[in-house]
Amino acid sequence: MSHHLAQALSISRDAAAQGIGIGLLIALIAGGIFLVVFFLAALFSILGADIGCGGKILWFLVILCLPFLGSLLWFVAGRPRPRPYY
């Protein structure tokens, strides 16, 4: 291989690696923003929920100890469902 070709391949590998690194950084930042918004949404949802004070404190503790899992549990199982009107 000629010196110029080897240098060009090296530059393209470096650019590809840099592009992958930037893509991963953007994905990590977006994931972090999603987790923070999900966490805050769960906390505000608990504040507005029609559950007792003890229940709110318990859910706050669960979410503070297990931020993602606690938030997911709140939205899946803990949040009171509206009663259907018949």
TrEMBL record:
It comes from Kutzneria kofuensis. This is Fatty acid desaturase. Residues 38-79 form the Cardiolipin synthase N-terminal domain. Pfam families: PLDc_N. The chain crosses the membrane at residues 20-45, 57-77. Keywords: Cell membrane, Membrane, Transmembrane, Transmembrane helix. It is found in: Cell membrane. GO terms for cellular component: plasma membrane. It is a multi-pass membrane protein. The keyword Membrane applies.
